[in-house]
Amino acid sequence: MGNPSGRDGARAVAELVYLLDEAFAGAGIEESNEAQSLLVNLATVRADQWREVPRGGVRTIESIALHVGACKVMYDEYAFGPGERRWDDPALTPWPEGHAPMRETVGWLKASDARFVDHVRQLSEGDLADPRPANWGELKPTRWLISTILQHDTYHAGEINHIRSLLAGQDRWRWG
To answer: What pTM did the predictor assign?
Structure first.
């Protein structure tokens, strides 16, 4: 194990930042337009699909995008900030569901992600094991909170991809 404040520690944090960036905005395989990142999947959503509910579903791509942003704000608020915001705070998201403009929502997601990632960049390797509060009050290791946000982006990117595919009538494997 390297010195937590030295070069090895910086590498551990840099690797987490890289993985966060890939989950949020990584290009994936550009030749075939295959990506698991949140922003790349949002970029394939047509304006008419933003608020459309797939048959048998209840969530829209808009509602998922607002959820992802709100979670990132809350994780950042509790892990790196004062931990005062609540889920019922009407100012948690800039718009209520059903009124979020797609382009502006993507801009808000980018700003929320940048704030979270900037806080991660300021960490040392030693900080990664330190307990920090999650938004439900439990203390969790910092690396666990970071990992959860990373996985959260990828999970919902897949949901967005699937909903978009259902709405476009193309819910099949390309090679199938």
So the answer is: 0.90
